[in-house]
Each structure stands twice: as structure tokens, then as C-alpha cells.
């Protein structure tokens, strides 16, 4: 038995000019991975006949499954369906179940007569297996050629996902011996990628051919991911679990979590486990930390509220930062965030609190306080920790870094002050 490889081709000029972000191929790759399919390539092409044809030729040489999204609409720039008809040597016919769906859609939803252009949605190549689309008007189509299956799906995400979940994913195990793919991921902080590599070099060099280690640095932290492939799930899981345990032990000093979850979820999980609550006082991040904490289900169990004290007057009037502090050391200072965190802790009556103040840029910096300077404070009723950070990126990334580092500082504080 051998690995089964897939390629994903996304079609549309809008993808190439950045007008639309391709989320389809990322989602499809994740779903294929769950059933043991390794995605070899993800290719984006424009609405160009020659480019699409070439992509089909090239990807079919390396993949047993070629998934195609986009170009199935009723307008002139939707060229995928006629091209596939020619590529596989077919002729267009009417697929009656699809025509019935399109007709019903216009009668019940659009409430207008269906025009010929829309009726063309029911035309399919006679050499394909039709995958009826119950979420839209464009059907999916399955073709076979020289041992490779080609599956064309609509580019509309909710339609594509429905077809994948109800047609494509269920059929693949019947067509291929897929094997199993297992991932184990941990997150480290406080150590660079190269230093991590030196720390775990003996473990990495001892990995068998079917298990790989990936380094995924981001925002000053590094994720380490072990990925294994095998046809015996129990054997694979035991092997990768043992190696992951050894990896965790090697990096224990810098370990943040042994789950593939974002920092805000790590903090939320800690708070839930301890039945504790948190609030935030945010200046430079404008409520972004509160947004992250509340973006996951169940956050009402641990998050009470936030004061976005963007202007100094709010720092004074709501959070009690003194005029003397702002006049002498300024808003971006240890004294200011310390007063902010104490006040929000009292106002919100939470177990923990975060306060941040900084200069995100591109303007506003000075020699003494350059763009990227940030002060963060975390506290409970007995203890306060304040820390200075110096970031050097654009405004958006500085905000994201501030939030991530503030949450990590809170995580460490919770562990030390349960």
C-alpha cells in the first residue's frame, strides 16, 4: 500500500489579484487530512482556459485525486464546466434532478421566472458522475481518467463544504486505501527556532521516515508539530505519542501548551479549570484582547468585561490613573499600566486582570519611546507583574503581538498564582 496524494486547484481571477482570500483549499486540505489523504499541491489559477488545462495535466501526474473549485456559475467568465467537458471528451446534456432544483429555487426563493442562462446550470458533461448540490444550483461533477479521479465543486464555500461532507469525503475510502495521518502539536515561548532545533536535535534525527517534525514560528513563539503516516492506526498512534512525550520533556521549560490551540484558548482553558474570571484594561490594543478572549464558545464563564481607555481622559476618569503619573512618566509606562490593572480588577471584581498601553505606530514614537514600545501588567488581588516589550513591526502586527504576549504573561501569572 502507498500514500494517496491529492491536489487542489482553485479557479478565479479574484483569487490571483487578492480580491478574495482562498479559504476553500485550506478547509479541504484539513478535511482530506482527517481521512488519511496527503495534499501534495494547492494551485490557484485564473479564468484562463490554457492555465486550467495545464493545471489539470500537471496535477494528475502526481495525484490520485484532483479537487477543483470555482468557475461553475452562470456567467461568461465561468469556464470550468465546458472546459472539463472538452478535457474528458464528453458532450453537454441536461441533468434533470439539477434542472428541477434550479427551477424550484427560482419559483420559491427568487420568485422570478428562470432565464436560459440559469437553466444552463443543469447542463453537465455526459462523461461525469453528478453530485447533486442541495445547497445551490451548480452541481458537483466527478470524472475519471487514467487512474485519477477529478472532482469539480462550486467555489461558494458553503456549497463546496456541503458537497465535500455529503459526497466526496464518504466516497474516498471506498475508492482508495487511504491509511492514517496523525498530528501532535505543542507551543513554546521564550526561545527561538534555532535554539529549539539545537535542543531537540537528537530526537529529530532519530525520527523514522514516516514521522516528520515541523517548526512553525509566529509572533515570537514556535509551534512544533509531529506528523506521522501509517496504515496501522494503533501502531502509528503509539509511536507518535511516545515521541511527542519525549519532545514535551525536552522543551518543558518553554512549553506553553501541548494542544494545537491559540493563546486565548490556552488562557480560557486555565480560567475554566480553576473557575476564575478575568477582565482587561486596554489602551493601544483598542479591545483586541477582549475580542480574542470572547471569540470562543464558553467565554462568558470566565470573561467579565473590558475598559478601552484609548484616551488619557478615560484612563484618569474611569481607571483612576493620576494626572501626575501621566505628566511625569506618560501613558506608556509601568506606573500607568499598574494603576490601570489595579482599577479594572476592582471595577470588574475579577480574579485576574490585564492592562496594556503602548505605541502601535506608524506615528507617535519618540527617541525615548519608539514605535512598538508596550507596557503590560497582569494582576490578582495580591500580586502584580508588569513587563516592557519592544516590537518593531507595522501597526496591525504590533497590536497582535501585544495581545499574544499579554495573554502569555497572564497564562504564566495564573500558573504561578492559582
Layout of SSEs?
Blueprint lengths: L4 E7 L1 H4 L7 H11 L3 E8 L3 H12 L4 E5 L10 H8 L4 E3 L1 H15 L5 H4 L3 E3 L3 E3 L8 E6 L2 E6 L3 H19 L4 E10 L3 H7 L1 H5 L5 E8 L2 E10 L2 H18 L4 E3 L5 H12 L3 E5 L5 H7 L8 E6 L3 H6 L5 H6 L5 H15 L3 E7 L14 E7 L4 E7 L4 H22 L2
Parallel strand pairs: 1-2, 1-3, 3-8, 13-14, 13-15
Antiparallel strand pairs: 4-5, 6-7, 7-8, 9-11, 9-12, 10-11, 15-16, 16-17
Give the key terms.
3 domains, Maf protein, Alpha-Beta Plaits, Molybdenum Cofactor Biosythetic Enzyme, Chain A, 5-stranded mixed β-sheet, alpha/beta
Strand order, largest beta sheet: 2-1-3-8-7-6
Strand count, sense and closure of the main sheet? 6 strands, mixed
What is the straight-line distance between the termini? 51 Å
CATH architecture of the largest domain: 3-Layer(aba) Sandwich
The CATH homologous superfamily of the largest domain is termed: MoaB/Mog-like domain
How many strands in all? 17
Principal-axes geometry comes out as globular
Helix count equals 16
Q: What proportion of the residues form beta strands (DSSP E)?
A: 15-25%
Number of domains: 3
What is the fold named in CATH at topology level of the largest domain?
Answer: Molybdenum Cofactor Biosythetic Enzyme, Chain A
Rounded to an integer in angstroms, the radius of gyration calculated over CA atoms is 27 Å
> Spans of 5+ residues with little confidence (pLDDT < 50)?
none
Amino acid at each position: 500500500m502507498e500514500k494517496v496524494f491529492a491536489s487542489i486547484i482553485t479557479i478565479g481571477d479574484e483569487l490571483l489579484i487578492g480580491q478574495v482570500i482562498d479559504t476553500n483549499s485550506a478547509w479541504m486540505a484539513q478535511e482530506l487530512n482527517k481521512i488519511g489523504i496527503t495534499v501534495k499541491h494547492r494551485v490557484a489559477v485564473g479564468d484562463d482556459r490554457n492555465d486550467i488545462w495545464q493545471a489539470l495535466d500537471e496535477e494528475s501526474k502526481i495525484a490520485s485525486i484532483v479537487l477543483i473549485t470555482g468557475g461553475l456559475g452562470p456567467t461568461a467568465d465561468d469556464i470550468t464546466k465546458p472546459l472539463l467537458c472538452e478535457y474528458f471528451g464528453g458532450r453537454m446534456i441536461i441533468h434533470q434532478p439539477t434542472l428541477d432544483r434550479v427551477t424550484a429555487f427560482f419559483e420559491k426563493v427568487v420568485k422570478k421566472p428562470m432565464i436560459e442562462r440559469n437553466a444552463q446550470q443543469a447542463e453537465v458533461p455526459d462523461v461525469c458522475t453528478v453530485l447533486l448540490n442541495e445547497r445551490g444550483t451548480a452541481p458537483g461533477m466527478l470524472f475519471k481518467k487514467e487512474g485519477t479521479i477529478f472532482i469539480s465543486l462550486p467555489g461558494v464555500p458553503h456549497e463546496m463544504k456541503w458537497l465535500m461532507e455529503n459526497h466526496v469525503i464518504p466516497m474516498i475510502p471506498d475508492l482508495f486505501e487511504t491509511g492514517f495521518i496523525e498530528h501532535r502539536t505543542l507551543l513554546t515561548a521564550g526561545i527561538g527556532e534555532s535554539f529549539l532545533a539545537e535542543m531537540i536535535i537528537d530526537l529529530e534525527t532519530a525520527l523514522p521516515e514516516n514521522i516528520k517534525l515541523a517548526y512553525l514560528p509566529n509572533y515570537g513563539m514556535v509551534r512544533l508539530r509531529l506528523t506521522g503516516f501509517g496504515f496501522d492506526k494503533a501502531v502509528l498512534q503509539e509511536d507518535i505519542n511516545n515521541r511527542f512525550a519525549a519532545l514535551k520533556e525536552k522543551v518543558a521549560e518553554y512549553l506553553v501548551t501541548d494542544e494545537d490551540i491559540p493563546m486565548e484558548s490556552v488562557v480560557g482553558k486555565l480560567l475554566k479549570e480553576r473557575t476564575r474570571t478575568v477582565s482587561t484594561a486596554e489602551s493601544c490594543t483598542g479591545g483586541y484582547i477582549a475580542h480574542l478572549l470572547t471569540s470562543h464558545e464558553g467565554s462568558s464563564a470566565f470573561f467579565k468585561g473590558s475598559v478601552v481607555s484609548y484616551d488619557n481622559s478615560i484612563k484618569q476618569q474611569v481607571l483612576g490613573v493620576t494626572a501626575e503619573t501621566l505628566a511625569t512618566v506618560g501613558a506608556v509606562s509601568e506606573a500607568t499600566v499598574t494603576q490601570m490593572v489595579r482599577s479594572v480588577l476592582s471595577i470588574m471584581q475579577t480574579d485576574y486582570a490585564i492592562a496594556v498601553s503602548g505605541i502601535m505606530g506608524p506615528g507617535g514614537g519618540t527617541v525615548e519611546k519608539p514605535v512598538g514600545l508596550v507596557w503590560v501588567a497582569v494582576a490578582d488581588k495580591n500580586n502584580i507583574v508588569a513587563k516592557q516589550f519592544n516590537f518593531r513591526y507595522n501597526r496591525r502586527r504590533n497590536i497582535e503581538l501585544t495581545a499574544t504576549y499579554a495573554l502569555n504573561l497572564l497564562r504564566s501569572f495564573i500558573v504561578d498564582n492559582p
